[in-house]
Amino acid sequence: MDDMNDETRWLDDTERRAWLSLLAVVLVGFPELERTFRPYGLVHVEYGLLAALSGEDEGLRLSELAAQMNMSQSRLSHRMRKLVDLGYVEVSGDACDGRVSIAKVTEAGRRFAEQVSPAHVADVRRLIFDHLDDAQTAALADALGAVADRLGSSCPGAPKGPPVPKARA
Fold first, then answer.
1. Cα(89)–Cα(135) distance, rounded to whole angstroms?
2. Nearest of 56, 51, 20, 60 to residue 121 by alpha carbon
3. Using CA atoms, how far apart are residues 80 and 68, in angstroms rounded to an integer?
4. pTM: predicted TM-score of the whole model, two decimal places
């Protein structure tokens, strides 16, 4: 085994603070976000599947959805089975290719997502953004975007390339 001590670039104080803060968000913040979905028998990843499918009127191939959500086919199948049993999603064969399955949000799934999304957004604001000013939010978006790009993030809604300024109404 190589001696890594000579080559190890230890975290400086700022990097260590950033890393420990990120861990706090993941280990404390995400379980807090899960509380929004618990009364409905769901977890955040299942809500994420509904959110991803809600923007797709024609539905998505299960293989595309798995790739987009960074999930294995088997994990996706398990989560989709639960959403289908709840009546939130329907899975059917593709009319052009019987080997392909397409997932679509049902009307009940859309109603559920519309019902729970305001609480979810309120939790995200309460846990993260209410503590930041505009400059900090932009810096966080830039920093996490750079990390996500390096990880090859394909998360729904993740920015691709440089941010595009939104038109003001």
1. 39
2. 51
3. 14
4. 0.75
